[in-house]
Amino acid sequence: MGIWDPIRLLGLISCSAILVACGGGDSEADGGIVTPPSSNIPRCTSTIPALVTTSSSSIRFQTEAQYVAGQSSAIIASIQNRDSQELHFRWQQIDGPTIELVSQNSPVLAFDIPASGSYRFSLHVTGSSIDVMGEIGINADAATDGLLNIRQDHQVVEGNGVSLRIGQQAGLSATNISWCIASGPDVAIDLTDPFRPLFTAPIASQDTVLRLQASANINGSQVKDDAFILTTAAPAISSQYFDTPVARTYAYREDSPYANALTSCVYSNQLNDSCTINQLPLIGQISNTLDTEAILDRVLVSHDWMGDNFAAFLAQMDPNSDFARLLQSVTAVVISYDVRPSFYWVLTGAIYLDPNDLWLTPAQRDSINEAPDYRSDFGNDLNFIMPWRYVKDNQYASLGFPVTTRATRTLAQITPDLASLLYHELAHANDFFPRSVHASLTGPRLIDDYNRRNTNKSLVSDQVSNLYPLTSTEMAGLAGVSFLGAKANATQKAYQPSDITTFFSTDIANDFYAYSSTREDTAMLFEEAMMSYRYQILRDVAVTNKPAVLTADTVIVDWGQRGRIGESSLENRAALVIDEILPELDGISLIASLPAPIAMTQGQSWRQSLAISPTNAQLKGQQNVATNGQTIIEPELRLSGDRHRHPQQ
After folding, report:
1. The domain 51-232: what is its CATH number?
2. What predicted TM-score, i.e. pTM, was given to this entire model?
């Protein structure tokens, strides 16, 4: 996950141009806004007009000079003599073939045009002393061969991270890709992957459109496309917690009684002190009736689809009400395109979810920032890795959908990843504030109750570590290197996989990440136990070598287990976690019902060890499998702790 321990609040820093308070990286003393260097890419020589401005009432619409079926496109709206901050936008389509709108709450309406013809949209803008409506129409020409599509045009706060991606038509490959600045301010762009440029939005004193242009060769023809990034001004950052720019978010339910508190208390660059329990109580302090509506009143999003999909998941994929119960211990659920990886933070009492586990359509996926995890270089000096995966019936439980394809997913297909993520992050919330203590919380802030509980060592994780402590100091030290950015010493650099096997297999953790903190130890136990119990999905963990190129074929197992949570030496500690977090279940009976661990064969590759369960035990790799006409691939190699963010120690 990533929990944020209040003891370390003053050490909070920002990373990967994503959001707040993470561990690793370095902090800016001036509040985190870094002026990017001058441009490392040229100015375009093209003089083709990019945007045409028309007015409707006081709304100004900027439209592209030409729209083409199959092309990624945008319309940008603004209010004359006024920046977009503090304004609320609501787009609707009123004419033409149906378009999936995923940015209907942004000044930038981005969309793919499904067919040639006429389209019309309405826009309602509200804010302080303003309530106006306008309409805009466009005409789209017939599709052409070899289109180049840059996805996705969008609005971004100055100083926030930006990612774009060049999409390709089926069967056609773009080559000789080059980028240039067509208009707007200079910007330094990371073109390590020319299909996925990454950059930090430039500082803007007023709303400013940055127009980037990509050129490529497709099917023998030179083609171009523009991307429009509306960089918006924002109030100066005053928060010591959210100290680099965060995306614009809003209450998913605009009529929520907590709408104002959500926007100011859980994801704001102006958050200077945690809100009180009276301002934003835990959900369970108000109602313990497992009311989904009460939960949705606490959801903060950057895009409507994130709340829509989360609501659908709770309604259709939580038959035992596990998540409804666990969510009683949070103040809010934040789902924003710039959250990566997911985490829980005790200061706000909220969980922050990476929407990559929630998208169902290509357009939804387009709106997610692809900035890489800031910890990707941690542990480079070590000679081992510890991969993990969830499996069922000798198959990966999760499906891999290449980002280069226009894939769709069902709620059932996202459930293994989303459920395991929620079990983990909500384990943290219930470790800190289980439902059994809700009535006794006195505040005035949650952090005050946390400090009292932490001083008394009364958290669930404190009980686990006191009664059933992990004993390997070697693994604890290595966790500091792999997850917290500590520098490896000579002894640690010399460890071989066989050494790690000895340290780990004889201890009572179920995953390497458990050694990063007692909080993570508890969350990992709960996550694996619940996935096995509710879904019969088992977790694989292994100690392997560390080849130069990491794939399921090159990684060789020294030791590994499937379903380690069923190991008898872990039974009491796992049962304690279950009893404290979900007392409706009997911990010992639950753990006893789980299958016994299955050992992997030393010397086999990670791929070969996929088929070790006794039933239907032939090798079943999932490479390039067709599902509902879509191509899916084997999920990428996952390493311990890669889905969760941990604070700096």
Report:
1. 2.60.40.10
2. 0.90
